[in-house]
Amino acid sequence: ITYWQRFLTKLSDYCDTNELGEHDDREPETFTQDVNQLLKKKVDEAIRSVEPPPSDMSKEERFEVVKELNEQGVFLIRNSMYYLAGRLNVSRNTIYNYLNELEIEQEFENL
Questions:
Q1: Which residues are within 8 A (CB) of 98 and not within 5 positions of it... i.e. 6 or more apart?
Q2: What's the rounded Cα separation, in Å, for the pair 66 and 99?
Q3: Residue 88: which H helix or E strand, with range?
């Protein structure tokens, strides 16, 4: 046991470790194989965070989805606008309008 205690102590110098048997409440990290999987995962999570399905979402709820994805940098992924527009059943221009509203909102907050 002493060997393992020394090992865990030394290991904790390099990374976050828990005592044996201690429960970790953090969500485990997941890694995707490609950017498309990452985009799908992030959009799915954002849509789930707003209760109704996309077909029943109000403008404000769709705006919140776009805001969350923008904060996560999802729109840096190529063709993410097309994908999200399809998932939210809106035009690509609607997504751009939401992003413009976000930009105006942020500028107003910075005054």
A1: 62, 63, 66, 67
A2: 7
A3: helix 80-88
H-type alpha helices, 27-79: 35-49, 59-71
CA distances, 28 to each of 25, 31, 60, 96 (Å):
9, 10, 31, 33
Count the neighbouring beta carbons within 10 Å of the beta carbon of residue 65. Answer: 23
Overall pTM surpassing 0.85 (yes/no): no
Q: Please tell me the chain's helix, strand, coil percentages from 3-state DSSP, rounded to the nearest 5.
A: 65, 0, 35
In this predicted model, what pLDDT tens digit does every residue of 24-56 receive, in sequence order? 555 556 666 789 999 999 999 999 999 899 999
Any idea what the Cα angle at residue 46 is, between residues 44 and 48, rounded to 5°?
70
Q: What amino acid occupies position 54?
A: P
Provide the residue type at 106 as one letter: Q
* Cα angle, residue 69 at apex, residues 54 and 57 outer, rounded to 5°: 20
